## 1
Amino acid sequence: MSPSSPIVAIYPGSFDPMTKGHEDIARRTLRVADKLVVAVAYTATQQKRNLFTVEERVGVINEVFASDERVEARAFEGLLVDFARDMGSRLVIRGLRAISDFEYEMQMAQMNQELRPEIETLFFVPEVEYSFLSSSLVRQVASLGGDVSRFVSPPVLSRLKEKLGT
Ligand code: PNS
């Protein structure tokens, strides 16, 4: 956007795996930011059992966005606000699908505000066709042999098939 001060946005999450809903949020972010770092957490706030390793998740996200040099996936450990600072970013992006997301997202945004007031959280709403979509549902449906090809991009689909032996 501005040549003197590029806007770097951080889109954090577990991305286990990245869905088309996540991709939609990433693309919306690029309407307001010059660069997007998709930040894959080693430490999520809610404890989860992951299907893919952090390295696998970073690798596949970089594949999904291989044609867009503005997007880069990286793993991060520790506090998100520290990672954002290290990346020279003051902008954290999250997606809001439904009212059920709201409480958790408010808590995280306000905690991050307490930790580093200079960092803002910006929420994007995904396309309505992705409003029901989540990584956990994709994992569940795929592990039970369901077709998830509408919900994830081809690199993610092939990793799911490899991992689940389907
Ligand atoms: O996609 P998720 O699992 O809802 O993402 C949650 C994530 C990774 C954004 C959140 O757990 C996080 O920011 N973790 C890093 C640790 C941290 O900074 N915690 C304090 C802020 S609440």
Note: The pocket of 4'-phosphopantetheine is lined by residues 12-14, 41, 43-45, 79-80, 108, 111-112 (CB under 6 Å).
## 2
Amino acid sequence: MKYGFFDDSALEYVITTPKTPLPWINYLGNKEFFSLISNTCGGYTFYKDAKLLRLTRYRYNNVPYDNNGKYFYIKDNTDSNNQVVWNPGWQPVKTVLDKYECRHGLGYSTFTSSKNDVETKVLTFVPMNDNCEVSKVTITNNKGTDALITLFSYVEWCLWNADDDMKNFQRNLSTGEVEVTDNGSTIYHKTEYRERRNHYAIYSVNAPVDGFDTSRDAFLGAYNGPDSPDAVAAGKCTNSVASGWSPIASQQINLSLKPGESKTFIFILGYIENPEDDKWEAPGVVNKKPALEMISSYKDEAAVDAALAELKNYWKELLSNYHISSTNEKVDRMVNIWNQYQCMVTFNMSRSASYYESGIGRGMGFRDSCQDLLGFVHLIPDRARQRIIDIASTQFQDGSAYHQYQPLTKKGNSDIGSGFNDDPLWLIAGTSAYIRETGDLSILKEIVPFDNDMSVAKTLMEHLKCSFNFTATHKGPHGLPLIGRADWNDCLNLNCFSEHPGESFQTFGPSEGPVAESVFIAGMFVKYGEEYAQLAELLGDKAEAERAREEIKKVYEAAITAGWDGEWFVRAYDAYSNKVGSKECEEGQIYIEPQGFCVLAGIGVKEGLAEKALKSVEERLDTKYGVMILQPAYTKYHLELGEVSSYPPGYKENAGIFCHNNPWVSIAETVLGHGDRAFEIYKKTCPAYIEEISDVHCTEPYVYSQMVAGRDAKFFGQGKNSWLTGTAAWTFVNISQYILGVYPTHNGLSIDPCIPEGFGDFQITRKYRGAVYNISVKQNGVQKGIKSLTVNGKEVSGNIIPYEEGVKEYTVEAIMG
Ligand code: GLC
Ligand code: GLC
């Protein structure tokens, strides 16, 4: 069952009922000011950091779901005996609407609704160049008679630090402060401005108002929720000026509309920072100059429309970096719109703020951010460059790294510390992807601090060497890399041995175990070690490349011997040196990660092990909704394995379909030339292909979720944790570079598709290193292999399009065969 449809020409997903199985959200903002907005107008706003600079409140864990947002109330007083209150997004009053449509577009959302022949259209977005969210609200009277309407706005301020805001009531209920100007048209939220903050927030409307409220209790009534505000029931605000408690911003506008008449209002929710020495315009009165400038930039519809057009152009331009036209509508839709869009959102948010990540939890993950980069480096290479430097700056001198860092300070997070032994290698993955994309070797010469300490800074290439050496020098009894606290699978905690609730699986126990090893990291070392060796070669350091390849050989050997279980790759060795992910185990006999990653790294291909490993995946882990992370599920808690066995069977890392590593298996299949199977795996978790089962899947049908419940779970097929997942980047890498086969190498783009039978011919436009490539691929009856490649009319040998300085356009014809 569906709850909407894709409108590809508008680049929108259209939701046709507010009662989706879960809130279906969108993200507004591209640089520093962001909002989450659901299809019922729930959500919140922050500046740069969802924990430290939260503008509006949201209540996670609330009943019902999705219960704070930025709301408009329409009170239709036309029939004085039958006044009706409703919201354009249905929540929070939940009056049944005559019409409802939410369109989530790229960086904006619209809500078109009507009740009793009054129609509202709300457009909301964050403009490209301002720290504000703009909402354009148009109310139209479609009745045959005059309509009497009162419009109320409502936002609830968060007292900046979202974590403290929901805990520290003894202080917070006394700190709230506001200012009100223009009889309420503009409301300034200035809590803590008098002391150490030099920022405030505004909520403003471009019209005179008939009333306002800034005290939540005055507007709602102390025992009401936003579903039944006293002020709305009474038909008027109370002009309250908050002092402590919970400050809000609400404006009241009375309207009389003739038949057919429309009125439009522009609301701005903005963030303003003043210079330290220019905070006040008078004692106790905030300097409003920058706020007034912001307000005047959006004072009329033309200005708002121009800002929206600018936003839409930005996206159009961005997405034109990789564009496919094929006979597969769903592939085109994902590649051209939604997958790239999700990659950008994960770039902006890492794992910080979604409806499942509360914005107060983890900062940016080292490994997560490096992998996210793989999905957006072709879109915003300059920002990817900066991101790499930021991430590398949190590395330690021995090559290990803080597992997380705070986006605002860019400092490593010492609560979680280091010891996740896959982390260092992801830095190589991200850097290599950046250089293959841009050819910019200068990044390797950048001087980058360790642990943010400039006195011990070295070149980025030295950082990569530390990464490489960390793995090379931290190996266990079988010559496989030590796992530390965990590798990619945060829940495989082989050195943890936690026996008491409340202990963090991530940080409990010794981080370094001298015994527990990871075959997955072995796969990474072979893959990214080789990428490191290539970088060394590019810098002219042949000896280092050779040394690296010697080290890689040793780990490769270990992977195909100690790391091989007979029919598939072992997952790990635990702290007692017992196998994890082996036929010898009672539960958890086979794990997905080493099968996908070892094979995509090329391990066991020539020995015939790769074929076997992927066959085993198909036989043991595959389901109709995707490939499960392990089987059989753990039915009891294993002290020696940690969190993986703490989840009920079928969920999360315990035999869920962890979407992130499905593309690894799909890529692995392309390495073996299996186009049919690679594409089959791609489709199983692909949002556009599973839109039809939105009632089972539950999460947004336009983005990937982190996890889909596995076969052992009661709710098999149900998605969880949508939006912020490395799945976005990896699926984009998979479809764009491996299945469609346009892969950036150091020497230029290579063309090597691996597509299913009957996929058909396709064209790709790819911007790369300042040139446009118009690539047309003819399938010619095969799944893999390039028979001929013609570039600008000349046939070239091999499958790499030679890069020529100065050439701005390449016409490429590739014939498979
Ligand atoms: C979460 C984490 C990621 C980890 C994965 C598997 O998605 O963000 O870092 O690799 O879980 O445990
Ligand atoms: C839990 C989750 C895992 C996540 C980790 C870090 O272990 O199961 O997916 O990566 O927390 O937040």
Note: Residues 351, 365, 367-368, 488-491, 653, 706, 725 surround alpha-D-glucopyranose (ligand 1) (CB under 6 Å).
## 3
Amino acid sequence: MATPLEEWVEECADLCKPDKVYWCDGSEEEACRIVKIGMTEEKIGDNKIFYELDHKTYPNSYLHRSHPTDVARTEHLTFVCHPNKEIAGPNNNWMHPDEAKKLLTKLSDGCMRGRTMYVLPYMMGHPDSRYAKACVQLTDVSYVAVSMRIMTRMGKNILKKIGNSKDFVKGIHSVGDFDPNKRYIMHFPDENLVWSIGSGYGGNALLGKKCFSLRIASWQGFREGWLAEHMAVIGVEDPQGKVTYMVAAMPSACGKTNLAMLNSALPGYKVWTLGDDIAWLNIGPDGRLYAINPEIGFFGVAPGTSMKTNPNMILTLKAGMFYPLFFTNTALNTDTNEPWWEGLDGAVPKNLLDWQGRKYDPATGTKAAHPNSRFTVSIYQCPTVSKEFDNPKGVPISAIIFGGRRTKLIPLVYESFNWQHGVFCGARMASETTAATTHHTGMLRRDPMAMISFCGYNMADYFGHWLGMDKRMKHAPRIFCVNWFRIDEQGKFMWPGFGENIRVLKWMIDRIENRVSAKETPIGRVPHLKDLEMKGLKIPKENLEKLFEVKPDEWKPEVEEMQKFFGQFGRKMPDGIVDELNNLKRKVNLA
Ligand code: GTP
Ligand code: SPV
Ligand code: MN
């Protein structure tokens, strides 16, 4: 008798009609074999799937060039298919599940002809964790099959775990013919199913990541009393050796990976890495909020990564402990056979191929690496990985940080007055868009909790769920907001960022430990300058003051924008948020 899993795989194979079906065991030997297939047999246009890079400087590494139209998540082609539109909310594209399935069935008929269908059993979360979920993804491309091995706990032991049960998360993925007109990323939350066709890129194709661990898991969390969030998870160790765990929600390409691997500029302080993109937050038996990172890899932004900005990441990329490591859409230095991207240390190499494999001429003013070029690498290679990383219980969280990319207005750091106000601070977040999605970059967009692209249900209900967490926790974390991206009149960053951000984290710890007071402003509490450890950093006092300035008049248009955004949700908006908005309006003289 076939198991429910075997039946499902067979059904999908009947529809997609691959030449072969191959069940992955997740071993290193298998990964080597699949990478070889990608280097020799498989192609995207004229490009092979993988090119071997120099293994002396970047051990186990390969370059992947995606289809040129397939370089980022495509939010306009992403749908959340609840049985009714109201559940999906104005924050999601919606299609009725029957209609979506009809469309996908048509597009998938024979889509894997001539290809192999890889069956990938994997776990999001540590298999011993009660919060972990067993999943199976199907895919027809080696890049995705092996990327899933880097990003998730993949292996045949998961098949045993699933056994005869129907309780596993399903993912169907095919690159189809990469036609953006036939590209869809569809979610069926009530069936724990993600179905994606036409894209091989990151969040569109590694279905355990954004699709399951955020969009579907956020819906599960809503119904089961937990939170699935777009957050980094870190432990900050102070000079006495005490570790304070924090999570940080920041939109795509706004600093989570860099924060997760922060190399402290303050002696005695150290940041331990637990996650750089996704956190699942559960209330533990002791009433505290616990975080696990369901992933085991980084799919990180390459441009801007250097020994100066993020030395721990450069060391991770060169560590060579785990097979393999991918660079996607970076440039290639043909003299050394090494990957290259804008912002990497040293001079621009003379002989570069750009991300599409064409000879690069800097005189054209274009970038050699795609701005959303990325690396895929195991977290176990990270020199700062926390010893708690594999703890199935997760780590107890003392602070929640919300941070956007704002060139103006938003202070470097402020603390919320209480939980409800903190949730409002998250809900009113906005950020300038980046290359992580196929939008225009640099436009201000409302992005509550950095989840606008990932909340798999009506965001008004999501806000209500956040507000309600407070009553169920005995020790709620403090909520802070940060902005590393303020610029001055000359267009230069006013705060040096990266390793210097530890000064901001230290202030948070001092607040949590009740060691310092803070200055009340209409939007929250900002530091007294004397409480910010500035030793070793020269920033003129006027600039520092500017980083914490809150002028009610400047906030008026911002508050009007928030109100407009919240307005979309109509009467569904929870009272707690409406009350906080009204308070703020009064404080900036708008009411
Ligand atoms: P996703 O993987 O898309 O979710 O992004 P992320 O939030 O992990 O962003 P990441 O840390 O990769 O940073 C994206 C970009 O922001 C990179 O180009 C970084 O160099 C830049 N960045 C990160 N932290 C800072 C900072 O403190 N200051 C400044 N100025 N730039 C930063
Ligand atoms: C993001 O865009 O937030 C990412 C990259 O982390 S992707 O996996 O493509 O979503
Ligand atoms: Mn992300």
Note: The longest strand covers residues 116-124.
